[in-house]
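ingest -> validate -> predict -> emit
validate: passed (alphabet ok, no gaps, 293 aa)
predict: started
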Amino acid sequence: MTTRRTFLKSTSLVSAAFLINPDEFSSKKSLIGLQLYTVRDAMQKDPADTLAKVAAIGYNSVEGATYTGSEKFYGLSASDFSKLLKSNGLTMPSGHYRLGEAKEKGEIQNGTMLHDWDKAVDDAAEVGLKYMVCAYLAAEERGDLDHYKYVADQLNIAGERCKKAGIQMCYHNHDFEFVKQDDKYPYDTLLGADKDLVKMEMDIYWVTKAGMDPIDLFDKNPGRFPLLHLKDMDATPEHAFTEVGNGTINFKNILANSKKAGLKYFFVEQDKCPGSPFDSIAKSISYIKKNLV
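emit:
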């Protein structure tokens, strides 16, 4: 049985300061986060047991992924989910949300940037989120550059509401934002959103898969990337997801530029795992502790 005592014992090694950015992290213990999409099936069945396991493995922060549509955090109210996090020694500084232009079975989705955003922000504040992230654009939400400009405008509007609650709006990339239209990347259009209202959560895997250089993006947009997803890419022709440290991405080099990026938090994410996702996230955190923090 996982208890708070075993959790604290397992996370004692995480108290070292960030070696990658000593100026920023030297005064507090380093945070090693997990995007809960990685353990989504387990969270659906038993969020309490899953969070206890995540904490026992050594993660001390998480990023949520299910509020859109249900307007619940893994089936729980903001108050109840906040208590569950605290009972496991976890914080949730960030959560994923959707734009809300795409419909689900013909129905609009509440808890999105376009629908019932006020409630989403209020609930996020109750859980203690510091960042609300537009996680993904469905195919019908992409379109041409004019439509990406519309998305950027909606990010600004959502960001204004977040700011009133002391929360930062962000956008999380995949690779489709780096397919040029009229010799311009849609991602550049999204970066055209107000740089104070809208920051970016860089998914390093998808940036790399798109043939882009994460450090180059940091150089061109300093301070714009407070959040990172650490997701590795294997050496097969498929460039499949793999555990952090088990693939081809040079995280040491990327994270050495964390101050330039404006990094505040990172989250391990592995969309698909070869076996138990708990085995995969254990391998990832072992590498991170030995090599990155």
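Strands lie at 33-35, 61-64, 91-97, 131-134, 168-172, 198-203, 227-230, 232-233, 241-242, 265-268.
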